[in-house]
Amino acid sequence: MPTLKPFALAAFSATLLSTAVSGVAATFNSDAIQPHGHWQSMMLSLGDERHFRAVETHSYSDATLSINATQGVCDLPWLEMRVTLDKQQGESRAVNLVPTRIRVDDTPIIDTMAEFITERGDDGFYAHFYLNDLPTLMAQMSQGEQLFLGFDQQDRDPWYMTFNLDGADEAIDRMQHLCSSADN
Q1: Cβ contacts of residue 50 below 8 Å, gap of 6+?
Q2: Distance CA 122, CA 16 (A)
Q3: Contact, 83 vs 95, CB < 8 A?
Q4: In tens digits, what is the pLDDT along the chain, a chain of 184 residues?
Q5: Contact at 8 Å (CB) between 172 and 138?
Q6: What is the pTM of this model?
Q7: Measured between alpha carbons, how far is 7 from 133 in angstroms, rounded to an integer?
Q8: Axis-axis angle for helices 168-183, 134-143 (nearest 10)
């Protein structure tokens, strides 16, 4: 797999409403958007499909960090970072699997992996994080001030990002409530 180049990451710009479905990009309708400090909570829908998101869009003009849940499986949320590439992608593919460190404030570092992927027809570049204990990370995010991400780059220094957690607690709580309410 090719390695993500640091200059490629600088070319990203944020977008919230695109997500991939069956390898073809689809634009979801956003509803019930509510701001929470530097975060927002919302529902994304397309037909009968419903996703719920708590998203931080303030720290970078070219990246978002979100916690997401899907109606019917609200107890299986996922952490995702999304950035926008310069053009629509011609194919869905895994670009790389990268050792990653996650930390909220001064809590212990979580060593994990992030899979970098693109989706055909979508201008997004996604980092999906493999986490064994997302509920604990979500609780730390709800009480913390900053979330730090560090992506290994083989022989080069790690690439670091910091996301502000102001409003994360309200956004995460509302995202979970919206998802649970949709299941009833």
Answers
A1: 43, 44, 70, 71, 179, 182
A2: 12
A3: no
A4: 333 333 233 222 222 223 333 334 457 788 889 999 999 999 999 898 899 999 999 999 889 999 999 999 999 999 999 988 888 888 888 888 999 999 999 999 999 999 999 888 888 889 999 999 999 999 999 999 999 999 998 888 888 999 999 999 999 999 999 999 987 7
A5: yes
A6: 0.80
A7: 31
A8: 130
